Every structure is written in structure tokens, then in C-alpha cells.
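[Discussion] Sanity-checking designs against the backbone

I'm trying to build intuition for which residues belong where. Below is a C-alpha cell string of 288 positions. I'd appreciate it if someone posts a full sequence so I can compare it with mine line by line.
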């Protein structure tokens, strides 16, 4: 078993119904945020955080994602012949990267998708990234989680405060005693609780660092909220068996599983980029 977390899993088998019709023929993960597809932002976050092995859990009609992470010799040659830079299509994948794909045969829930990574884990801890949750931060959110995990061990998840009336959209933590304002022991986890039943307003967002014991819990194939195999339920059964902490991360999260979230992310990333920001600010003023 490798104690250092070097493996990361991207469950991307979802249909993307909230971004229709844009995602009817194009995987939602390939919709653009600024100058690159959504999936590339998450991948680059993982690379910047020090990960070396990458697994994509795919589904039907996701072939464009595999193509995006493959070499394209004809395009590279055409760009080279014209004297155009190749970095944008080639250099975002560092040479040590080990990239693989596994098909989730049935849409049985996030927990089932993560279970599909059991052989990839091979007894090592893994990180899990939900690409719908795009996080703009000075220090990558995954790197923030890894720092806490290296110090405290066990499982670590990213959380943020949400309005009480929105707890039914998320997994919500029951905070334990001790900790700090930003690193909180987890005493319990509840998937999509009604506001009156929520133990807090601290919601889990799509960044997890999980010990390999999670796969034995997922193998039970117990269905939870929505009749699906929930990752939250499997994580909850590990509480008390090993350290489990939540990190109130520094950064801004965008729900890119929705059209409105994608638009907001594009604006935020554009205004944060020195190349695009001046022109974007001028364009925005014309609409105000």
C-alpha cells in the first residue's frame, strides 16, 4: 500500500441532462470554460496537486473525452507546418501521466461509479473529483485536501457552507468536536437531508481523498437516496474506524452541471485571466 496519494478518479458517466440541449451530442465535460473544456480544468487541478495516475469512469457517448486526452498527430503536424504553438493541445498532459478509462456499464449512482475504480486503487488511497464542481482557487482544492490528509491521515472531503434550504441537494456533515474553523472532524454524514433534518449547513462538494477501505463498503451495493448507490453512505460507515475530516476550502466553487453555473464560471475565469480580462470587462460594460 502506498500512503502517498498519487491516484485520482474522475467519475464522468452522467448524462448531463441539466445542460441540455448543449450536451445532447457533446459530453457535458467537454463544454468550454474559457479556452478549454471543463474536464481539462479538473485534470489540470489534479496535475498541479501532484497526482500521477488518472482514471476516468466513463459511460455511453463519452468518446470525445478519450479523444481529447489522446495525441492527434495530424493536427499537431498541421499546426507545426503553420508555425503555430502546440502547447495548447499537447502540453497539458505531463510526460509521467498514466491515463486510463473504465466504462460504468449501468448508471447505478456515484458510489457505483467509484466502485468501478477498485482495481485501479489496488489497495492504495485515491482522490475522487466531480468535474461538475469547478473550483477557482489560488491553491488547488485537491492540494488543500492533501495537506490535511498528510497531517491527519484517514479520509478528507471538501465542504462549503450552503443556505439551510438547500441541504437537500448535497451530502451534509455532522461536525464533531475539536478541530478548527477550516479543518473539522466528521461525526456523521447524511445524503440530501431535508432542511429540518440537516445536522449542519456544511455540504460536501466534489473533492474527496479516500482510503482503500471505501471499496469494501461500496461492494455492499446498498441503495440509498434516489434508489442509487451513494458514495456518502459508504463514507459514513467508515466514520469512527479511521480519521475523517472536512476541509472548508479556500476558493470559489461553480456548479458547472447547470447552464447558469457554466456561464458564471466562464465569467469568473475570464475575469481572472490577464489575457481575457481586459476585453471581457469592456464587453460587459456595453451590456450594463
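Best answer:
Here's mine. Compare freely.
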Amino acid at each position: 500500500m502506498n500512503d502517498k496519494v498519487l491516484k485520482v478518479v474522475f467519475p464522468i458517466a452522467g448524462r448531463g441532462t441539466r445542460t441540455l440541449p448543449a450536451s445532447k451530442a457533446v459530453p457535458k465535460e467537454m463544454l468550454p470554460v474559457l479556452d478549454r473544456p471543463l474536464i481539462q480544468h479538473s485534470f489540470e487541478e489534479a496535475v498541479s496537486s501532484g497526482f500521477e495516475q488518472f482514471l476516468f469512469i466513463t459511460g455511453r457517448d463519452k468518446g470525445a473525452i478519450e479523444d481529447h486526452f489522446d495525441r492527434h498527430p495530424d493536427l499537431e503536424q498541421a499546426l507545426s507546418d503553420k508555425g503555430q504553438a502546440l502547447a495548447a493541445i499537447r502540453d497539458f498532459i505531463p510526460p509521467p501521466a498514466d491515463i486510463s478509462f473504465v466504462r460504468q456499464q449501468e448508471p447505478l449512482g456515484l458510489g457505483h461509479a467509484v466502485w468501478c475504480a477498485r482495481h485501479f486503487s489496488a489497495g492504495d488511497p485515491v482522490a475522487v473529483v466531480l468535474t461538475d464542481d469547478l473550483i477557482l482557487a489560488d491553491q488547488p482544492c485537491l492540494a488543500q485536501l492533501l495537506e490535511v490528509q498528510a497531517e491527519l491521515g484517514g479520509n478528507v472531503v471538501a465542504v462549503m457552507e450552503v443556505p439551510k434550504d438547500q441541504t437537500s441537494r448535497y451530502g451534509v456533515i455532522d461536525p464533531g468536536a475539536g478541530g478548527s474553523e477550516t479543518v473539522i472532524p466528521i461525526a456523521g454524514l447524511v445524503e440530501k437531508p431535508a432542511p429540518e433534518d440537516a445536522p449542519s449547513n456544511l455540504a460536501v462538494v466534489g473533492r474527496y481523498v479516500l482510503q482503500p477501505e471505501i471499496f469494501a463498503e461500496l461492494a455492499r451495493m446498498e441503495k440509498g437516496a434516489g434508489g442509487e448507490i451513494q458514495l456518502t453512505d459508504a463514507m459514513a460507515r467508515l466514520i469512527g474506524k479511521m480519521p475523517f475530516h472536512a476541509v472548508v476550502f479556500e476558493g470559489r466553487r461553480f456548479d458547472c452541471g447547470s447552464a447558469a453555473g457554466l456561464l458564471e464560471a466562464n465569467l469568473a475565469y475570464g475575469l481572472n485571466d490577464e489575457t481575457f480580462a481586459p476585453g471581457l470587462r469592456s464587453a460587459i460594460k456595453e451590456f450594463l
